[in-house]
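@channel sequence for tomorrow's demo:
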Amino acid sequence: MKKTITLPKVIIAIIILFALFWVGSILKCEIQTLIHLDEFGDKWTENTMLGEPDRLIVLKYSDNYAELYHKNEHGGNVISFKRNDVNEEWSYNGWKDTVWSRYGSADDFIWPYIR
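structure tokens (generated this afternoon):
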């Protein structure tokens, strides 16, 4: 008997692959956060506009560059850090993007956390 691939099976397979990729991306960020978040301390306070975070998540991490997602009740922002070559310390590099804001016009998504 010949088996055929139907459209519903293809759609279900695509949804499952997307879900696995999404969960994998969240796991990667959560693991990076567990391992590396302490390296940044409270250096995010160099930007006085952000306020106290409810959560900081490491989105990207390499030897000399990192991006953190700074999230609180007022919004979500991506901030970046660079590692100083001389003393191996992280320094605040800048406010990269405002992903969403409760009181402003920013209404975007951040992968993989959506909001």
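heads up for whoever presents: The first strand starts at residue 55 and ends at 61.
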